[in-house]
């Protein structure tokens, strides 16, 4: 075995280890516990050390094309880590008074001549570890997913994880499972949630995996017209045995899981983003002017998702339950006759217990209330915030007197980020998301790009739009698994751009090779007939 072959085999082993981490992350309660975070930090850090050791002492001199394109998000993640570290540095009263309006009010923990900006140093340290894990994962993706074959492995691994979660969610939901896992009481009798504890986090995970799967399907669409019943019959038979049919079934399974979660904003965000980004893609293909068949196939596919997945499959699963919850979001109290549960908030997750007084549906006003009141925190801590992961403590002085209960999240990711990391931290995140969206738009409008690349750009745009919509009334990005998957979605336009020509034109599946041979033989016949 030559040295180059050995290096490639080691690289392949690191890629498979990275994919295994992505599949593993949702399993232990979505890695949303401190012990799961510690285990994940060890795994990711170990993989990073393995990669650096195999790359040699001059690893920085052998940057891949992907990493060179992704320097902006890479440096933004470094800036994010530096910002969180600054919240832990001890500062004098004079410096703190210049960064916050009233650093002493309501926060005795920050009193003293030299004290950090964070109102809860322990929580911010854990938050910094989470950020370190996310930054390392993003760095490893940019370093290891440097060719088309590895990119396809990544997509297939994420789809496998999504289907696994959807199947587990549906089976446990149908069985009404109730068990204790890692000292957490989990009940599946009311909403599907897979291995997640909170059903909205499960819905957010499904949304992003579905976006990746739909983008992959768009990259495989043909759209060519077939004349005659024999040609149509052959095309349908070829479709049934192709990878497209398997992928379509996987999408249906994940849509079933999303609907069974009965997440109001999760389902709404999925279909709104599908129609919105689908319309943008149609306009982009129309702008290119060379893919009329592709435009037709795209519209038919989106229509099939809406009709087949929502109307038919959703009618069997129970989409009317989701619609009923959406219609009732403006009501103060909605008593569910079929439910006998009361939700209490514990460590960011919903723990359901039985009660004879019935189920009290959370209204839209109650969902967004903490976030609106948390705007006062942004006003008092505008630059660097109260500290990463400190909302559960920092919100107490701002909570209205007539409000009881414990809030550990704002139910609005935008406001929670602004409160915890300040406007400077929000600026870093906005540039990170905006740069990725800009890259995806450029790929959609670039007529020189192949269809597969544009399909994955569609996936990135759809995943970003749907999670931003969902995050306006929830805290998906505070979940480690969903935050890591969101970074992968943001990374897609950097991974797919600029593949070598031989990789861009490579065809791996049987259903792609057969039509090409058919087209070549048909062209030969036309030439023999003297036709152009």
Descriptive overview:
Helices cover 66% and strands 5% of the residues. It has 532 residues and is mainly alpha-helical. Helix 6 packs parallel to helix 19 (480-496) and helix 11 packs antiparallel against helix 12. The longest helix is centred in the last third of the chain and has 33 residues, at 413-445.
Can you tag this structure with a few keywords?
single chain; 532 residues; mainly alpha; two-stranded antiparallel sheet; two-stranded antiparallel ribbon; 21 helices; 8 strands
Architecture blueprint of SSEs:
Blueprint: H1 3-24, H2 34-55, H3 65-69, H4 71-86, E1 91-92, H5 93-99, E2 114-115, H6 121-144, H7 148-175, E3 178-181, E4 184-187, H8 199-220, H9 229-240, H10 243-260, H11 264-288, H12 292-317, H13 319-327, E5 335-336, E6 341-346, E7 349-354, E8 359-360, H14 364-373, H15 375-380, H16 391-394, H17 413-445, H18 451-471, H19 480-496, H20 501-504, H21 510-529
Antiparallel strand pairs: 1-2, 3-4, 5-8, 6-7
Helix pairs in contact: 1-2, 1-6, 1-7, 2-6, 4-6, 4-17, 6-19, 7-8, 7-10, 8-10, 8-11, 8-18, 8-19, 10-12, 11-12, 11-18, 17-18, 17-19, 18-19
């Amino acid at each position: 075995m030559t040295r180059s072959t050995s290096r490639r085999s080691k690289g392949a082993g690191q890629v498979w280890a990275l994919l295994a981490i992505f599949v593993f992350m949702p399993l232990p309660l979505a890695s949303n516990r401190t012990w799961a975070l510690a285990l994940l930090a060890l795994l990711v850090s170990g993989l990073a050390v393995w990669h650096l050791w195999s790359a040699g002492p001059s690893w920085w001199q052998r940057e891949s094309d992907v990493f060179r394109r992704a320097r902006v998000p890479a440096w933004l993640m470094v800036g994010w880590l530096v910002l969180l570290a600054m919240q832990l540095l001890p500062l004098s009263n004079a410096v703190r008074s210049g960064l916050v309006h009233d650093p002493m009010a309501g926060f005795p923990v920050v009193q003293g001549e030299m004290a950090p900006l964070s109102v809860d140093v322990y929580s911010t340290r854990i938050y910094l570890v989470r950020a370190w894990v996310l930054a390392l994962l993003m760095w490893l993706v940019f370093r290891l997913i440097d060719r088309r074959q590895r990119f396809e492995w990544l997509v297939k691994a994420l789809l496998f994880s999504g289907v696994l979660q959807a199947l587990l969610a549906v089976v446990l939901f149908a069985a009404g499972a109730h068990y204790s896992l890692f000292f957490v009481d989990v009940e599946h009798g009311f909403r599907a949630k897979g291995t997640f504890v909170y059903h909205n986090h499960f819905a957010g995970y499904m949304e992003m995996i579905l976006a990746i799967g739909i983008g992959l399907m768009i990259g495989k669409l043909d759209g060519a017209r077939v004349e005659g019943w024999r040609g149509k019959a052959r095309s349908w038979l070829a479709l049934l045995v192709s990878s497209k049919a398997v992928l379509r079934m996987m999408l249906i399974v994940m849509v079933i899981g999303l609907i069974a979660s009965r997440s109001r904003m999760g389902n709404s965000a999925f279909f709104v983003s599908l129609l919105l980004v689908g319309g943008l893609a149609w306009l982009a293909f129309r702008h290119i002017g060379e893919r009329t068949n592709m435009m037709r196939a795209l519209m038919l596919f989106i229509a099939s998702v809406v009709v087949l997945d929502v109307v038919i499959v959703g009618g069997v699963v129970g989409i009317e339950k989701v619609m009923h919850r959406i219609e009732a979001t403006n009501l103060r109290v909605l008593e569910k006759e079929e439910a006998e549960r009361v939700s209490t908030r514990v460590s960011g997750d919903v723990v359901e217990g039985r009660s004879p007084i019935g189920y009290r549906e959370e209204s839209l006003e109650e969902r967004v209330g903490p976030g609106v009141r948390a705007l006062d925190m942004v006003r008092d801590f505008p630059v660097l915030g109260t500290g990463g992961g400190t909302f559960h403590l920092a919100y107490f002085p701002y909570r209205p007197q007539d409000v009881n209960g414990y809030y550990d999240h704002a139910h609005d990711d935008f406001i929670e980020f602004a409160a915890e990391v300040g406007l400077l931290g929000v600026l870093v995140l906005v540039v990170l998301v905006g740069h990725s969206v800009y890259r995806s738009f450029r790929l959609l409008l670039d007529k020189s790009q192949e269809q597969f690349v544009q399909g994955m750009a569609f996936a990135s745009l759809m995943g970003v739009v749907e999670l931003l919509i969902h995050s306006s009334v929830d805290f998906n990005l505070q979940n480690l698994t969903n935050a890591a998957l969101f970074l992968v979605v943001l990374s897609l336009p950097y991974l797919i751009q600029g593949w070598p020509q031989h990789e861009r034109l490579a065809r791996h599946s049987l259903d792609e090779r057969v039509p090409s041979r058919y087209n070549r033989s048909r062209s030969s016949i036309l030439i023999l007939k003297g036709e152009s």
